[in-house]
Amino acid sequence: MKTTSDKAMDMGIVPIQGGLSIDDNVIGSIAAMAATNVEGVVSLGTSSFRKVLAERVKGKQRKSRGIEVAAGLKEAILDIDLKVFYGYSIQNVVREVRFSVATKILELTGLNAKEINIHVIGVDLKNNSSTEMK
Questions:
Q1: CA dihedral angle for residue 94, residue 110, residue 112, residue 80, rounded to 10 degrees
Q2: What backbone torsions phi and psi does residue 92 show, to the nearest 5 degrees?
Q3: How many CB atoms lie within 10 A of CB 48?
Q4: pLDDT band of 119, cuts 50, 70, 90
Q5: In a domain, 1, yes or no
Q6: How many domains does the chain contain in total?
Q7: In the chain, what is the straight-line distance between the N-terminal and C-terminal CA atoms, in Å?
Q8: Could you tell me the pTM of the whole model?
């Protein structure tokens, strides 16, 4: 199946050139969504009163709280702070978070995750009574 740009080339239309930049906050938001979808992750970052208050005063909440991103043209380095549910293997959760984040960033932005540094900042009890090892 031909893409729109392939069809344009067949018709003799020259593709339009231009640059693309993806803001670090966009990459952080993608990483946050990918990380929080991993089983065993409670939350990202800390929700200090000052940070939450500052975000509310500004009128928007950072979706990438707990994630710092340094991105270039082809690669990104991420530092992620997260909490894990009690009873889950921290090593397994971290491995799954790295895989999920790297896959989503590559899929949606085309950037390779050169490093994904994860800092486990807490362990929380699950809401239900099951605490079996995963």
A1: -40
A2: -70, -40
A3: 10
A4: very high
A5: no
A6: 1
A7: 42
A8: 0.74
